[in-house]
Task: inverse folding
């Protein structure tokens, strides 16, 4: 029976060996389990089972086998497999302890050690580990080790802002070229980084197109990470439309890398800002995919959380915004952004005093970040209209008091509040700061250096400000200081003389002797060019050839004036040149000889007879105005075509428009106009 069992075990081992060579680890696992039924504590069989489970991706089950048989599978025999399972299960700290506890550091453990250090973002130790591996190893994996080494250098450049050293790696593969581009982006060399990425894309296409089994879709999927980095460069360069288009193209490919999708979605959210919020809310779901936290660095994850909090604020989800920002603050108590987001949310809720109190508490607890916090507090005070309080906050930032930008801002704000004394005090404090640090000690002696350009500029600005606001004596003191520094400065001397002329005329005369004489001044000015320049108020007309008429005008010197062209009068639309005009046309209608007044009761007699505006058939016979003895009257509207041309007919100029009888008001307006125009 023992012999039969031994024969069966031998046959099973042969099956395990054959399946292992063929890569059929599922079938090999079945054979190993049969062996373990015969001998449950067989070390080799247990090791083979762990390997088969790892090859099949069952890392949790493999780790369970290792932990169950700790007495048989010691740390020396199974250290690599255990550490690898922990690494793949994202138990990085446990994997590091397993590697460090191994009595013998094999090449496999060293390779895994480098990967673990990279995931823990301990880049300096990781770099040393890969250098040691490359130096002491010679096999077919040398190219992969160099790629990993270049990835460590790129991470240092991007996240730790370390200037990468030249490793002398030949960029023969697209992975090496891509990592080199990332290192350049970390240094801010965006154009060079884009060129490297274009080279990486070309190398990738060449490499993958050699394999006949690789489709165009596979190539595009592999290029997705390169295109994503290209879009990131475009975004940094301000080409947001191009970046957005490329980001959306990558998302349409549906890459399997959840880390890449999360980064692209986050970058799209930053482009949208407070616009296109609906799209941002859809993209945020990609950042919540399972496994994202294991694919990205801590800084990337932190940036995504910050943007989630800001998006919650923009979408008026106040509770969600507070929850996210509070969580971020607990994770990074010294970080500025969480407290700034909380303050911004409070301001949106019109709680400005509470926001300023929150910022003040943070500034007291974290003095290193006090300057940036106080700048934000000052901005909030200005938004509330408390300019003086904002100035007090700004002046409390000691490390910025002497900066020209701060001085300019304070002086402008104090001038707006008409507090000239405080503005001058700001100038004085800044100038004194430069004077205090102007001297340096050398062997116990105080050596004074020439004033810096910033110092001199502040003195000049202070003098100009004082002159503008009538502080002449104080301005004179500053100008004298400037002139002592540079006695050849004619501009400063001229300002000083101008200031003294308002206070001490004698002193101004004495100083004017230091001005250079007009003979010494060589002003090479082209008068013609100056007069014909674009900004000249007077431009001389170019002389041209004069004709005979023009010569007379030149000689006349203004005697001949240009006559205004008389505008031709307008004639009525129904003007008939054969009809002579009415000699009484300039007189008001009431003053004309043929005016008989308004006929009363005419409309009353015609009520109910015919359609509106029509007349009876016998009305013309009863009209006294048409008798032979009557003087001529104006033709009725609409009857001009039937009127014969005689001297007694009134011309069409005086016909009234149909349906608009002349009222008394209109006649009075015509009187006011008086006589105008004519034929």
Result:
């Amino acid at each position: 029976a023992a012999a039969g069992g031994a024969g069966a075990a031998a046959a099973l081992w042969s099956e395990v060996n054959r399946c292992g060579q063929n890569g059929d680890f599922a079938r090999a696992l079945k054979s190993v389990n049969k062996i373990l039924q015969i001998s449950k504590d067989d070390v080799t069989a247990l090791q083979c089972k762990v390997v088969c489970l790892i090859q099949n991706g069952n890392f949790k089950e493999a780790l369970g086998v290792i932990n169950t048989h700790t007495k048989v599978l010691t740390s020396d025999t199974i250290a690599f497999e255990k550490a690898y399972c922990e690494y793949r299960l994202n138990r990085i700290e446990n994997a590091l302890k397993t590697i460090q506890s191994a009595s013998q550091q094999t090449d496999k453990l060293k390779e895994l050690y480098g990967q673990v250090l990279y995931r823990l973002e301990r880049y300096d130790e990781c770099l040393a580990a890969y250098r040691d591996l490359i130096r002491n190893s010679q096999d077919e994996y040398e190219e992969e080790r160099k790629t990993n080494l270049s990835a460590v250098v790129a991470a240092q450049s991007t996240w730790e802002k370390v200037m990468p050293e030249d490793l002398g790696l030949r960029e023969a593969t697209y992975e090496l070229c891509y990592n080199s581009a990332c290192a350049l982006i970390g240094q801010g060399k965006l154009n060079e980084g884009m060129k490297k990425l274009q080279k990486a894309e070309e190398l990738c296409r060449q490499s993958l197109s050699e394999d006949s089994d690789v489709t165009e879709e596979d190539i595009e999927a592999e290029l997705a990470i390169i295109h994503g980095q290209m879009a990131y460069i475009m975004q940094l360069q301000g080409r947001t439309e191009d970046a957005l288009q490329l980001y959306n193209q990558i998302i349409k490919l549906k890459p399997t890398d959840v880390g890449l999708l999360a980064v692209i979605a986050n970058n799209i959210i930053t482009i949208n800002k407070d616009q296109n919020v609906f799209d941002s809310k859809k993209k945020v779901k990609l950042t919540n995919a399972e496994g994202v936290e294991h694919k990205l660095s801590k800084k990337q994850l932190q940036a995504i959380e910050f943007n989630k909090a800001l998006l919650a604020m923009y979408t008026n989800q106040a509770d969600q915004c507070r929850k996210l920002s509070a969580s971020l603050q607990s994770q990074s108590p010294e970080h500025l952004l969480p407290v700034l987001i909380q303050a911004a949310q409070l301001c949106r809720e019109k709680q400005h005093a509470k926001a300023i109190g929150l910022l003040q508490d943070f500034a007291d607890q974290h003095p290193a970040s006090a300057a940036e916090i106080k700048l934000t507090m000052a901005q909030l005070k200005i938004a509330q209209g408390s300019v003086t309080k904002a100035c007090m906050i700004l002046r409390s930032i000691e490390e910025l008091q002497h900066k020209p930008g701060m001085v300019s801002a304070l002086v402008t704000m104090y001038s707006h509040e008409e507090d000239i004394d405080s503005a001058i005090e700001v100038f004085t404090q800044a100038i004194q700061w430069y004077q205090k640090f102007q001297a340096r000690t050398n062997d116990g002696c105080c050596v004074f250096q020439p004033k810096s350009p910033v110092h001199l500029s502040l003195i000049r600005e202070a003098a100009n400000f004082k002159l503008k606001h009538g502080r002449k004596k104080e301005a004179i003191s500053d100008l004298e200081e400037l002139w002592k520094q540079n006695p050849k400065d004619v501009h400063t001397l001229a300002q000083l003389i101008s200031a003294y002329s308002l206070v001490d005329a004698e002193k101004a005369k004495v100083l004017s002797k230091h001005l250079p004489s007009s003979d010494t001044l060589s002003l090479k000015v082209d008068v013609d060019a100056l007069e014909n320049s674009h900004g000249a108020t007077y431009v001389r007309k170019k002389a041209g050839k004069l004709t005979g008429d023009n010569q007379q005008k030149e000689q006349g010197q203004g005697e001949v004036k240009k006559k205004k062209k008389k505008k031709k009068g307008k004639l009525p639309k129904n003007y008939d040149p054969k009809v002579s005009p009415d000699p009484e046309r300039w007189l008001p209608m009431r003053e004309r000889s043929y005016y008989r007044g308004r006929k009363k009761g005419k409309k009353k007699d015609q009520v109910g007879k015919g359609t509106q505006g029509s007349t009876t058939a016998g009305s013309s016979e009863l009209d006294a105005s048409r008798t032979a003895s009557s003087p001529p009257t104006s033709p009725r509207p609409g009857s001009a075509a039937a009127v014969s041309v005689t001297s007694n007919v009134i011309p069409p100029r005086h016909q009234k428009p149909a349906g608009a009888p002349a009222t008394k008001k209109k006649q009075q307006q015509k009187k006011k106009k008086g006589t105008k125009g004519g034929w």
